[in-house]
Specification:
mainly alpha, single chain
Length: about 70
């Protein structure tokens, strides 16, 4: 089960800059995977829907990027 973006980000508050960059790269990988394979999904119900997970991952990426910018400035 995937956490909503706010919960996901709250778990990263004390993460180092290197950890945030690794997490960002993982989210980018998930986004790229969805974009490459979105037409190949099986025809059964998933919760949350792949489209929702894609949306959440984009929100997470935005928030992670902001966290990285803030940590980099410290």
């Amino acid at each position: 089960m995937m956490l909503d973006p706010e919960s996901y980000i709250s778990h990263l508050n004390d993460t180092s800059l290197d950890g945030l960059i690794k997490e960002r790269n993982l989210v980018i990988h998930r986004l790229n995977h969805y974009e490459k394979h979105k037409g190949n999904a099986d025809e059964f119900d998933l919760y949350p829907a792949p489209e929702k997970v894609y949306e959440w991952n984009n929100i997470i990426l935005m928030k992670l990027t902001n966290m990285i910018i803030e940590k980099h400035g410290e």
